[in-house]
Structure formats: structure tokens, C-alpha cells
Design goal:
Layout (H helix, E strand, L loop, with lengths): L18 H6 L11 H7 L5 E3 L10 E4 L1 H10 L7 E5 L4 E10 L4 E5 L4 E2 L6 E6 L8 H12 L3 E6 L8 H18 L6 E2 L3 E2 H10 L3 E4 L6 H5 L7 E6 L7 H9 L3 E3 L8 H23 L1
Parallel strand pairs: 1-3, 7-8, 7-12, 8-9, 8-10, 11-12, 11-13
Antiparallel strand pairs: 2-5, 3-4, 4-5, 4-6
Helix pairs in contact: 4-5, 4-9
Protein name: 16S rRNA (uracil(1498)-N(3))-methyltransferase
Function: Specifically methylates the N3 position of the uracil ring of uridine 1498 (m3U1498) in 16S rRNA. Acts on the fully assembled 30S ribosomal subunit.
EC number: 2.1.1.193
Length: about 290
């Protein structure tokens, strides 16, 4: 049988390139969650490590031990006089060098006074029911929330995702730290303890900008056209199988706006990333226009 050759299918992108979409994000200067000035300050070329305690002045010394010490000396094989940066997850950054190494840690000496960099982006707080996710999907969700610039992530306990193990929470804390270092953000993302729907409702009612992902609701981009940026906002995503009708009514009844993310059924982590990425770009574009 002679095979009939099929012409390649070329997707028609013309209909997708809607000018109104680009107008929504006009003025966006970079795929960053902060202004260019603070971004340039926070992204150095030196290896960067976390330390709760930083030197207070130029010439001061702090001790670095534990996992960061191991990473410096065993993974990167840094030695005496090698220059590195320390940050504390609260916006402070300092450059210095390794003064001394022994079996238990290194002594870091500051070559400058600490710099404090303000967080200038909208504080987006993510509430997602990811306790039942398998195979590293929860790790991926938390990692990408960190990279995209979420201020906090809270595991949401629902009827269809009613628990999350303490061991998993400990692991996720390590994921947050690794992602914070990788993307070079200076303000740590907070991983909050699990929260029940009833405990979330007062937070929703006090927020002027909160969104809950709901199938077939008003598209998110359409909902944003009539809104103005606020200092903080909430992102709420249900579990596999979605919120129950009662749970959804409680959330929207407290003031959250139901928004849609397209015609397809999305996984918990996909919906979370779609909401967060779009809102980060939107808030960045609003700040660019206002400035």
C-alpha cells in the first residue's frame, strides 16, 4: 500500500497573539520579580552561601559550619583567601573571603560593610493543597515558587488533601534554601506550617487581592484588567480533585476572586505556577508603568 504523505500541520499563532494581552504587560522590562537596580545588586558573580549571622562591619569575622561549610570546601573546593558572599535571607548581603579553615568550619572575614536590599515586588502568598502529591511534585512546586519570587507558601489542608508529613516539611525547607541560593534571591521564601480552610478564611477576608483557581471561571488575564496592584496578594489552589463545593463557597464568600487558567484540567503544581507566574509579571508591569 502506497503511503500518502501528509502535509505538516502548522499551528496558527495569529489568533493567540492578541494585542490586548501584550497591552496588559506593556512596560515589562525583565522577567524578574524586582526592579533592575535591586536585581543587579542581588546577583553577584561570587559563590553565595547562607548564614543566619553576618559580620556587622568591614573586617568582622563570622564562623560558617554545617552544610554550607561542606558545600564550600568539599563540593566547590574553596580555600583560604577565596572570595565569597554571605546572605541571611532577610535582604542583607556581604562580600568577604575565607580567612581560616579547620575540620569543623571556616572563618569568613568581611571585605565591606553589609548591604541591605529592599524587596520591592508585590508580596504574593501561595496557599496550595499539595500534601498528597507524589514523586517529587511537591518539591518541584515549592522550588519553582521560590524561583518565581513568592513570599510564602502554605500547605493547605482540605477534605481531599487532609495531611502532610513532618518529614516532608523538613525536606521542603531544604528545597527552599537550595532554590534561594540557585536563583540568588536575597529575601527567603517562608514555608509556613500546614493550614486548614477555616483558618485561611480570615486572611482572605482581610486581603484586597486574592485569587482562587476554578475551572471555567473568568480568565485570569481578563480579571486583571480592572484591578490595580496592591502591596500583597493571595494565590489559592485546590488539591487533586479540586475543592469541594462547600470549601469553594467558603473561600469565594470570604472575598477571593475565582479565576480560570484555560480550557484544560491542570495539575496542582501546574495551576500554581500558571497563577504565580502571571501575577508576578502583571505586578512587575504595573510597577514599571507607575514608575
Amino acid at each position: 500500500m502506497r503511503m500518502q504523505m501528509l502535509a505538516p500541520i502548522r499551528p496558527r499563532f495569529g489568533g493567540l497573539l492578541n494585542p490586548s494581552w501584550f497591552n496588559t504587560f506593556r512596560g515589562l522590562r525583565a522577567l524578574s520579580s524586582s526592579s533592575s537596580a535591586s536585581a543587579n545588586q542581588s546577583r553577584g558573580g561570587l559563590p553565595r552561601f547562607f548564614s543566619e549571622n553576618l559580620p556587622t562591619t568591614k573586617g568582622s569575622v563570622v564562623r560558617v559550619q554545617g552544610d554550607e561549610f561542606w558545600h564550600m570546601t568539599k563540593v566547590l573546593r574553596l580555600g583560604i583567601n577565596d572570595r565569597v558572599e554571605l546572605f541571611n535571607g532577610k535582604g542583607e548581603l556581604i562580600e568577604g573571603c575565607i580567612e581560616r579553615i579547620d575540620r569543623y568550619g571556616i572563618d569568613f572575614v568581611a571585605l565591606e560593610d553589609p548591604k541591605f536590599i529592599l524587596s520591592q515586588n508585590t508580596q504574593w502568598h501561595v496557599f496550595a493543597a499539595f500534601g498528597s502529591l507524589k514523586g517529587g511534585r511537591a518539591d518541584w512546586l515549592v522550588e519553582k515558587c521560590t524561583e518565581l519570587g513568592a513570599s510564602s507558601v502554605t500547605p493547605l489542608l482540605t477534605e481531599r488533601s487532609s495531611s502532610i508529613s513532618e518529614n516532608r516539611v523538613d525536606r521542603l525547607q531544604r528545597v527552599v534554601l537550595a532554590a534561594t541560593k540557585q536563583c540568588q534571591r536575597l529575601h527567603e521564601m517562608i514555608l509556613n506550617p500546614p493550614m486548614k480552610i477555616d483558618d485561611l478564611l480570615p486572611t482572605v477576608s482581610q486581603s484586597t487581592l486574592s485569587f482562587v483557581a476554578v475551572a471555567e471561571a473568568t480568565p485570569l488575564v481578563s480579571a486583571l484588567t480592572s484591578l490595580r496592584i496592591q502591596p500583597s496578594g493571595l494565590i489559592i489552589v485546590g488539591p487533586e480533585g479540586d475543592f469541594t463545593e462547600k470549601e469553594l463557597n467558603l473561600i469565594t464568600g470570604s472575598g477571593a476572586s475565582a479565576v480560570g487558567l484555560g480550557p484544560h484540567r491542570l495539575r496542582v503544581e501546574t495551576a500554581t505556577m500558571a497563577l504565580l507566574a502571571t501575577l508576578m509579571l502583571w505586578s512587575d508591569s504595573q510597577q514599571a508603568v507607575d514608575s
